[in-house]
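Subject: Sanity check before I submit

Could someone independently write out the structure tokens for this chain? I want to compare against mine line by line before I put it in a report. The sequence has 269 residues.
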Amino acid sequence: MRELLSIMARLRAEQGCPWDQEQTFASIAPFTIEEAYEVADAAERGDMQELKDELGDLLFQVVFHAQMASESGAFDFDAVTAAICDKLLRRHPHVFGNKGLLTAAEQSVVWEDIKAQERRAAAQSGAAGSPGGHLDGVPLALPALMRAFKLSKRAARVGFDFEHPEQTADKVAEELAEVREAARRVAPHDASAHAAAEIFEEIGDLLFAAANLARKLDVDAEAALRAANAKFERRFRGMESLAAQRGEVFADLNLAAQERLWQEVKRGE
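---
Independent answer below. Compare away.
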């Protein structure tokens, strides 16, 4: 760790790397997000060698941000590690305190309660007369589906939630009906801004309702969609392969023929 910190400091030094020297928190942030996704991808595929490499890349991002903060006098890497140690101790009172043993489900509740207390404390220490809201602190930079999941979860913690999953599913059906109605009202080839905006809004409501249903059913919406993407890609590639084996050009087949290939690939899984 000391060697990595030393390398990072050297890269940013006067005789270091010009590219590293000109970076800012904002310019590095997209790389940090990208590296986090590459970690998730390697973990999902179970590739331990690649996971090791990607974790190193992600750690380098943490070190990069810490080095820039150190240069401005804001904080350094030691402060980052101290903060996460304090947080882990604080959020695990059943391990490091006197709360006694908890189940995983009970610990999840305790964790969220402590996070809520921390948000309230942070809000009270901020601007006077600004108590903060229950949705504060959900990062705008999150993928939209993940953020929808977290927003609805926060709202549910203060009672703004359907009682049963069936009611949430009904909301999805309601939003889908509104999408269909908006599409029906749009005349063929109507490319007006109003028509596009109406459908855009209704599709957004439908996606938010679907993310809320996933939360209600205790499903990670982001992970579920990634899995669906992977399944679609696998099956589509399977259709292309079958077509090629039969001397056909997939793109030249009509929809009915492509659908038959889809069903054949699906049955073969």
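---
OP: Matches mine. For the report I'm noting this point. The chain has a mean pLDDT of 89.
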